Amino acid sequence: MSTEHVQVRVNTIEVVEQAVAYFFGMPVEDLHQKGTTRAVTVPRQIAMYLAKHMTDASLPEIGRHFGGKHHTTVMHAIAKVEERRRREAGVAATIGALVKSIRG
């Protein structure tokens, strides 16, 4: 059986957050903080979005990883990123670049 067409999710939340932190020029620890500034919340929301789509982690797992956030906060972050991705070409390009770098 050929494995060419089978996509296996081998990424971890750590891999995702390292790529996001590097992309935004910030320490990984900032993604775990309770900060509410746009400079922190947008990268954290994007990291949560990518963690959901690129790993097998559950919403509660993702929330715990990003500073003990409730799973509904993770759901909200994912919805916000999906909306911004549809409306803003820059966000779509950012996510595309991050996916490409994570898949490496």
Would you summarize the structure shown here?
The chain is mainly α and about 100 residues long.
Description:
The chain is mainly alpha-helical and about 100 residues long. The chain has one domain (about 15-104): Chromosomal Replication Initiator Protein Dnaa, Chain: A (Orthogonal Bundle), CATH 1.10.1750. Helix content is about 65%, strand content about 0%. It has helices spanning about 15-25, 40-55, 60-65, 70-85, 90-104. Helix 1 runs antiparallel to helix 2 (about 40-55), helix 2 packs across helix 4 (about 70-85) and helix 4 crosses helix 5. The longest helix is centred in the middle third of the chain and has 17 residues, at about 40-55. It starts with 12 loop residues before the first helix and ends with a helix.
Write the layout of secondary structure elements.
Layout lengths: L12 H12 L13 H17 L4 H7 L5 H17 L1 H15 L1
Helix pairs in contact: 1-2, 2-4, 3-4, 4-5
Count of strand segments = 0
Order of helices and strands: HHHHH
Q: Helix proportion of residues, in percent?
A: 55-70%
The DSSP helix count reads: 5
Write down the overall geometry. Answer: globular
Largest sheet: none
Alpha-carbon distance between the two ends: 24 Å
What tags apply to this protein structure?
single chain, 104 residues, mainly alpha, Chromosomal Replication Initiator Protein Dnaa, Chain: A, 5 helices, globular, disordered N terminus
